Known about the structure:
The protein has helices at residues 5-22, 25-43, 48-67, 71-93, 95-106, 121-137, 146-154, 167-175, 181-213, 221-252, 270-276, 279-290, 300-318, 322-346, 351-370, 376-384, 395-412, 416-428, 433-456. By secondary structure, it is mostly helical. α3 packs antiparallel against α4, α3 crosses α7 (146-154) and α13 (300-318) packs across α14 (322-346). The radius of gyration is 23 Å and the shape is globular. The two termini are 15 Å apart.
Amino acid sequence: MVFSSLEFLFLFLPLVALLYFIFPVKLRNGLLLCASLFFYAWGEPVYLFVMLGSIVMNYVFGLLIGKASTPGRKKAALAVGVAGNVLLLGAFKYTGFFAENLSALTGLTLPIKEIALPIGISFFTFQAMSYIIDVYRGNAQAQKNPLDFGLYISLFPQLIAGPIVRYSTVAGEIKERHIDFSLAADGIKRFVTGLAKKALLANSAGLVWDTLTKNGAETSAVSAWTAALMFSFQIYFDFSGYSDMAIGLGRIFGFHFEENFNYPYVSRSVTEFWRRWHISLGTWFREYLYIPLGGNRKGTGKQIRNILIVWLLTGLWHGASWNFVLWGAYYGVLLLLEKLFLKKFTEKLPVFLRHILTLLAVLFGWVLFAFDDIMLVPKFIGSMIGLNGLSDAYSPQLAASNAALTVILALASLPLGKILSERFKEKIGEKSALFGIAETAWFIILFILSVAFIVEGTYNPFIYFRF
Length: 467
């Protein structure tokens, strides 16, 4: 197992932060590297060697690409490096999936079992590939210090569940950064915000989802819609909360990671939704796959091909299961329809209607995402359209017990808090004592409540750990 939440909050993080601020500047990267490798080894000691293998492999290929004397050698080194990363990811993540489906198609019994998945392998592998590709393109210099490169791949704040950080974003800060207590204080606030999203909001929504689906996918329409809505909130606050914590931790140690979420549930189109959701993954696929394939520059036919390839692979990136493949195909088709046929029509619709249609499309997408057993998906959708009845004896109690939670989740998914905070700053002045006291009290309360929920609760999953 990885560190428990309380071990991380009250043992690992304070100790690492204390040592970091005490250590001389020259030793801080070494400290963070050791802490990051220890963090990973604590969860899965055996798979530390997978992490170290990835670091060594990509460090070597970065040097080979950087020192290649001809374009042909440079391209060959890149091809082998990318292939090595793909094989590493495929061996652990997709071997069992392909063996199972090949056995089903051929009738053969292949002696290959599913391999346990190293935590965060999809994130650090994509991060490593972006590095060697950027070195090949000339967008980054090959890192000659193996310890600094190891820190880039293994940095514990975003190691487990992203965001996917490009080397060029943090190269300067890996080389040189200084103690900045103002940045560290900002990081603490961002971390607490993410912790509250996870502990207070995501867990509360997820518990409702699990309760409503524990007996299968066949339920009343009211229960099915409530469950789907709660899963939509759970996955948003779970992943955006982790991203906030990662960004906050990065700032504590002097790093600026790019934003990974931008209030996706305010979107008015599916295209806009995916510009706001998991921004680092969308950027990765656009920069390193969609555009190299030709993007939309080589005619409609190839644009359709490129979008479908990107989205099928996006689905597979999330997991070796048919529901993720269908989820990727679902969004590929939706985006094609929106870009090629529906855009002119939908732009004429009222804003609120465009918003509702987008949320409905996203909601059905989460149904595909939520069920690993693909056979449960049509049953659950059948429940949503009322095939098992519109309501049941539990429906009034369900609506009443979750009304307040639904309102809180909906409001928290909007930029309302950000707007109110900015207006509060303008009204009383950001540097005033009253603002400082109010802000400090707010974050202390959030932290105490989050810890209390973690201590008292037994439900604390992290959805994106499995990716």
